[in-house]
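for ur thesis appendix - Flagellar biosynthesis protein FlgN. copy paste whatever u need, i formatted it the way the template wanted (i think)
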Amino acid sequence: MKDALLATLIEEYSAVEAFASILTLETKALTALSPLELLPPIVEKKTELIGLLARLETTRDELLAEMGFPGGWPGMELAASADARLADQWALLQKAAERARRFNTSNGELIRVRMDYNQRALTALQVAVPQKVGFYGPDGRIPARPAA
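the 3d part is after this line
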């Protein structure tokens, strides 16, 4: 049972490392001048890895239950306290997860900054373009002339 849990932790660690690597690619894409063509394969891989991590977490919780431990972090802490190999791998997994969390938080901030910039640019464009008769509006149509 402990060997299966250890194998799951090792696989989970590898998946978290892969996820962190994808997040670094996402960072590069988000800081590129035109990220739109770079992001779809990154999002696809992130989604795949999130699914894998969810399955591994479920497996880990099932193995912990079979060993008489609660699921999640508390159960893993108890299991790790009873086995040095599990403790070492659990510590590696936690460090990798924390690194991935930092990358993800940073990427979220990059997205927020880009969205804020885009909103300010749109606002500036809307204020800078006077509504003159004969100019097309935001809907692509020329507004009707006001009655004189």
